[in-house]
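Dear H.,

Thanks for agreeing to be a second pair of eyes. The structure we're designing against is below in token form, covering all 53 positions.
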């Protein structure tokens, strides 16, 4: 299997479906990273809302 095909898996309905790699799975389940992302998104929203008012 080629390196670029490593995250793809065959499925019955679809020919190729992208599957998350090990790093992506770890980042999606890491509570600390999710809290950081949540804070960043909220700050961005506050900036956008403050510009409109």
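And this is the sequence the design step returned. I haven't edited it by hand at all.
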């Amino acid at each position: 299997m080629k390196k670029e095909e490593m995250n793809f898996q065959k499925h019955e309905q679809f020919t190729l479906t992208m599957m998350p790699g090990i790093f992506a799975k770890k980042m999606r389940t890491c509570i600390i990273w999710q809290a950081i992302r949540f804070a960043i998104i909220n700050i961005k929203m506050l900036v956008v809302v403050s510009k409109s008012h």
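Two observations from my side: Residues 8-52 form one domain. The helical segments are 22-29, 31-52.

Warmly,
E.
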